[in-house]
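Ticket #4471: structure export looks truncated?
Reporter: QA, pipeline team
Priority: medium

Steps to reproduce: submit the single chain below to the structure queue and open the exported record.
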Amino acid sequence: MRAFQAIALRFAIIAVITASCPLLNCQDATSNAKAVLFAASISMRQEVYPAGQKPWVTLITKNTSRRAVDVRPNGLAWRMHVEGEKGEPNRTLYHRQLRGEPGLPALDGGGPSRFPLNLPGEKPYEGIPPGESDVRQFDLTVFYDLTPGQYTAYMEVQDTTGVWMRTNTVHFEIRPPAQ
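Actual output as written to the record:
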């Protein structure tokens, strides 16, 4: 019986030490982090585009929380990023306005890093219910002046609590016109 009590006491001590790990300066990834409300990923329709054809990115945002994620102007924000062989390509005027660059007039329905409400062909956002996903298509030529070459793209998406998440990176190529 004493042997059983000694073993039980040892397990109890180990459990107490393990439970107090954050108090002993062990790393706790969740102690300072906010709960993430969604998961986001992107994909391309294809990997190679002939010059003149528009490269499209698909953003899938899945609500992983227990409540609807509001994605209206004060809700979900996103930023598009594209890098080429010589760095970031030139941004279009629309993209510069969307990012809120100084000296440019603001876009209606959005501010810096906010999704404008009235993009042609876009459905209005009502929010993403728990466990559901929202799928959006983005024409990269709306954001960047893309010339033939190799590119990588990713997005950053922010939820209503201010948590930013970087998506996966996708690769694509724009080929010069055939001669």
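Status: closed, not a bug. The export was complete when the record was re-opened. Leaving a note from the reviewer for reference: The CA atoms of residues 121 and 137 lie 10 Å apart.
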